[in-house]
């Protein structure tokens, strides 16, 4: 019994934890916003004032219910009106119905409310079976027939517009726009970058596609004001600069982590402790309809892989002469060697090396990540790293030399014998090259 209670308490705590964790996400992975409105004054009245948008945004079952009720209520309303006209004119009396009193009725072949209901349907939808017709005896009947015809056309136009707008709204186009399951952080051209991948499954493209990203996290201003959901714009693009992309196949979106980036001080260890959310937005014009669409997703710190790179998924098929996109590799990443320190620390180390000289360099712990692991959750790795006699030695198989570069200086290499040579004059083959720096 005690074991059952402990099991139930653990399940309860886990469910509460999962609920809290889900509530912390502002935008879900599929794009819906985790926002609920409450205590809105006159909310129902404002929704009814914009009934068209309300029906378009409503679920299909409510839209179809309103669709059916509009026609049924209009048929019943005008059926009552036709019954009143026939009743006041005396068309429903027994003498008229038996034919003993030869007076022309307002509506021929009307015998009761059921006949009036059928005549209402025939008039509103211009069915015209020919059994019941309006005569010249009652001008009010002619006026009501005109009013019902106009009302029926308006109801049909309104409901067809709602159904068409609901079917063709650009929100459904986002179902075929994909975002990668994880974002990654690695170096590109020597610059730390945050990357995620977007894709489109359809052959009809998104025109004028551009990407945005916002960082949402807690902020305390200089005056002590707490902003729990402060939004900071991240500069993103296909090359990290321009947000517009030529969106014909899956594209990797890049954010350069430089001195202007809000992620400039974040290291791999800080990433595990940070609380933020990166909301990514893809906007563009649907080629087939000309309507603007917007797809959204988000990444939490636990969904950002440090030291990973997206696997290539585009290949050229010689037999067909086409480029093939393998979406089975859309979310796949590979591990790459990436420093664990922040971009600020990396820039400070580079500046120190350039000022103090490259010959006597003291490596920081963040410059040498841990050994490679086969786990997909490993933050970073290094192929060969050993410590011998107070020195850190990193070996790379020849003929690839290890380069140490500084801004606006010629790349140099350090050999095992301590000799420093210019890379342009280095032509040696089949040697193990090592970088030795005192600890």
From TrEMBL:
The chain crosses the membrane at residues 62-85, 141-165. Residues 28-170 form the Potassium channel inwardly rectifying transmembrane domain. It holds the Pfam family IRK. Coiled coil: none annotated. SUPFAM superfamilies: E set domains, Voltage-gated potassium channels. One of its GO terms (cellular component) is plasma membrane. GO terms for molecular function: inward rectifier potassium channel activity. It catalyses: K(+)(in) = K(+)(out). Keywords: Ion channel, Ion transport, Membrane, Potassium, Potassium transport, Transmembrane, Transmembrane helix, Transport, Voltage-gated channel. Residues 177-349 form the Inward rectifier potassium channel C-terminal domain. Signal peptide: none annotated. It is found in: Membrane. It is a multi-pass membrane protein. The keyword Ion transport applies. One of its GO terms (biological process) is potassium ion import across plasma membrane. The keyword GTP-binding does not apply. Belongs to the inward rectifier-type potassium channel (TC 1.A.2.1) family. PANTHER family: INWARD RECTIFIER POTASSIUM CHANNEL (PTHR11767), INWARDLY RECTIFYING POTASSIUM CHANNEL 1, ISOFORM F (PTHR11767:SF102). This is Uncharacterized protein.
């Amino acid at each position: 019994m005690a074991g059952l209670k402990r099991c139930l308490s653990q399940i309860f705590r886990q469910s509460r934890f999962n609920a809290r964790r889900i509530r912390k996400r502002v935008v879900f992975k599929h794009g819906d916003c985790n926002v609920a409105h409450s205590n809105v004054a006159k909310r129902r009245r404002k929704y009814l004032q914009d009934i068209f948008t309300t029906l378009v945004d409503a679920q299909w079952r409510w839209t179809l219910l309103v669709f059916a009720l509009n026609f049924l209520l209009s048929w019943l309303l005008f059926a009552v009106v036709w019954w009143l006209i026939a009743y006041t004119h005396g068309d429903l009396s027994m003498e008229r119905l038996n034919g003993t009193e030869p007076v022309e009725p307002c509506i021929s072949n009307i015998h009761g409310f059921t006949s009036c209901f059928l005549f209402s349907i025939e008039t509103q939808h211009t069915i015209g079976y020919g059994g019941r017709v309006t005569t010249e005896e009652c001008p009010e009947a002619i006026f009501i027939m005109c009013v019902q015809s106009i009302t029926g056309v308006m109801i049909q136009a309104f409901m067809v517009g709602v159904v068409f707008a609901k079917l063709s709204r650009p929100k459904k186009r986002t179902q075929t726009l994909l975002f990668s399951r994880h974002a990654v952080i690695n170096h590109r051209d020597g610059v730390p970058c945050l990357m995620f991948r977007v894709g489109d499954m359809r052959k009809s493209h998104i025109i004028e596609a551009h990407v945005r990203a916002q960082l949402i996290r807690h902020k305390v201003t200089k005056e002590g004001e707490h902003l729990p959901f402060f939004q900071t714009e991240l500069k993103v693009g296909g090359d990290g600069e321009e947000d517009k992309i030529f969106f014909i196949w899956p594209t990797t979106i890049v954010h350069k982590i430089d001195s202007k980036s809000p992620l400039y001080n974040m290291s791999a260890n800080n990433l595990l402790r940070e609380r933020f959310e990166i909301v990514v937005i893809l906007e563009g014009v649907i080629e087939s309809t000309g309507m603007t669409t917007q797809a959204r997703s988000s990444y939490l710190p636990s969904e950002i892989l440090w030291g990973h790179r997206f696997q290539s998924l585009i290949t050229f098929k010689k037999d067909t002469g086409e480029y093939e996109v393998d979406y089975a590799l859309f979310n796949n990443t590979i591990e790459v060697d990436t420093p664990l320190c922040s971009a600020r620390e990396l820039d400070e180390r580079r500046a120190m090396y350039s000022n103090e000289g490259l010959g006597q360099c003291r490596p920081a712990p963040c410059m040498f990540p841990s050994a490679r692991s086969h786990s997909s959750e490993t933050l970073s790795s290094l192929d060969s790293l050993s410590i011998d006699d107070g020195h850190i030695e990193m070996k790379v198989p020849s003929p690839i030399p290890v380069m140490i570069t500084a801004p606006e200086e010629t790349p140099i290499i350090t050999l095992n014998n301590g000799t420093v040579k210019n890379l342009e004059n280095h032509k040696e083959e089949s040697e193990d090259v090592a970088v030795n720096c005192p600890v």
